[in-house]
């Protein structure tokens, strides 16, 4: 199926589904035109409203729920691009619909008292939390049609959304276009994936710290001698223990701790065990990300120097170490200006942790570097989506061999089935 055929069919199907139930969920890959499909639905529904009620379009209200404040401008640009006239904040044109924006954070806290003819949930996977679902259910009566947009959503989130609205007579019609399908249809070009495999270093340049907040003189010990202090916790509970280790030993220590708490969670189902499993999983991810900084610098200096690229880092500290001038993060006051400079070709790189995975319009990205993969397909698809609008996209993906990193990498490659260039070995 050609690019125009796939997009055209998906868009027509979405409108047909909306006409049927008034509730659609579009789980479409990047570049498929989710926003355009939502605008087509708005155009159709608002015209039907004006024709059947004889009211002016200025009586037609749209609520758009977005992930971040900066995403509002993207929608305004799309409205203008597709010639949808709109009022915002106040009515200035009787022949234009009314648009209201809310961030998910605001949506979770308020009950809308104004009826919205259509509510659009951009990046609808943000409805995953219990508070979001409660807000959704409490606001169902104050909306007519509903449109949910996302590149990828867990089935559990979809089921929870369906449960939250079904008692109000709203049934979801769903359209799915996976990233692999969009690539096969040439909607987006097939990327070249360049793996960057690394190994855990055996030099003892790492530390494991026990009793971090203990006062007094700390005790330093080599990793092979750690059990004397770990087993005798009572004797050393007020002493900081610094275990000198290498990267492999530190990774093994985290893995062993994680395995212990997973087994305990399986037996006890305690909330404390669950929290420890989550904490250690995050600690493992942060550790694997942190040891890649030097290798990332090498890739940037040798492979990406002639490209416009985006680099997904494992932490804010890492993004600022690699390039503080173009680091997009929550500590920066004016991220929008950095994005604007990039889109105007005043800069050629952007560094971020998670803030640019979704919802931002970025111009002429040619390559990407993913320093740390997540186990979730959604995160990988969103990161890939930032790069896949280039003519010949290249994506460098770093992973540490014989670790959880490698499992995540193999899973992502199995999902995507793209061309892999073994430039740095297996």
Shape: globular
Helix/sheet category:
alpha/beta
Strand count, sense and barrel status of the largest sheet are: 7 strands, parallel
* Helical coverage, percent range: 40-55%
Low-confidence stretches: none
Number of helices: 16
How are the strands of the largest sheet arranged?
3-4-2-5-6-1-7
- For the CA atoms, what is the radius of gyration? 25 Å
* Percent in strands: 15-25%
Distance, first to last CA: 34 Å
Integer average pLDDT = 90
What does this structure look like?
The radius of gyration is 25 Å and the shape is globular. It is of the alpha/beta class. The model has no long low-confidence stretch (mean pLDDT 90). The strands form 3 sheets. It has a 7-stranded parallel β-sheet with strand order 3-4-2-5-6-1-7. The longest helix is centred in the middle third of the chain and has 22 residues, at 247-268. Helix content is 43%, strand content 20%.
Write the layout of secondary structure elements.
Layout lengths: L2 H19 L1 E6 L5 H20 L7 E6 L4 H11 L4 E3 L8 E7 H4 L8 E6 L8 H10 L3 E8 L4 H12 L6 E5 L1 H6 L7 E7 L7 E5 L8 E4 L4 H5 L1 H4 L4 E5 L1 H22 L2 H20 L2 H10 L6 E4 L3 H8 L3 E2 L6 H9 L5 E4 L14 E4 L6 H11 L6 E7 L3 H13 L2 E2 L6
Parallel strand pairs: 1-6, 1-7, 2-4, 2-5, 3-4, 5-6, 8-16, 8-17, 10-11, 12-14, 12-15, 13-14, 15-16
Antiparallel strand pairs: 9-11
What keyword list fits this structure?
426 residues; alpha/beta; 16 helices
Summarize the structure in short:
The chain is α/β, with parallel strands linked by helices and 426 residues long.
